[in-house]
Design goal:
The protein is mainly beta. The chain has a single domain (about 1-90), classed as Domain of unknown function (DUF427) (Metal Binding Protein, Guanine Nucleotide Exchange Factor, Chain A). Helix content is about 0%, strand content about 55%. The strands form three sheets. It has a four-stranded antiparallel β-sheet, with no helix packed on it. It has a three-stranded antiparallel β-sheet with strand order 2-1-9, with no helix packed on it.
Length: about 90
Amino acid sequence: MKAIWNNTVIAESDDTVIIENNHYFPPESLKKHFFKPSGTHTTCPWKGVASYYTVEVNGKQNPDAAWYYPETSELARAIKGRVAFWKGIAIEE
């Protein structure tokens, strides 16, 4: 699977975990130079507290477009540390 934004592949892996229709990519599959830590955090009642990245490609920013759970509940342990995308980031095979 590939995560694509601004005509650029920002993550690629054959090992994604799908939860609630989101592909969670392993952290090592990210092209790290496109990701900037964000101060945003949200809470999911069953997964835990999410942290976010702003994605930046060719000078264009997509704030909080990627999220991950550094720590998870027992129910969500399969996605601990993995990264998912939204806000216009396409997921393609």
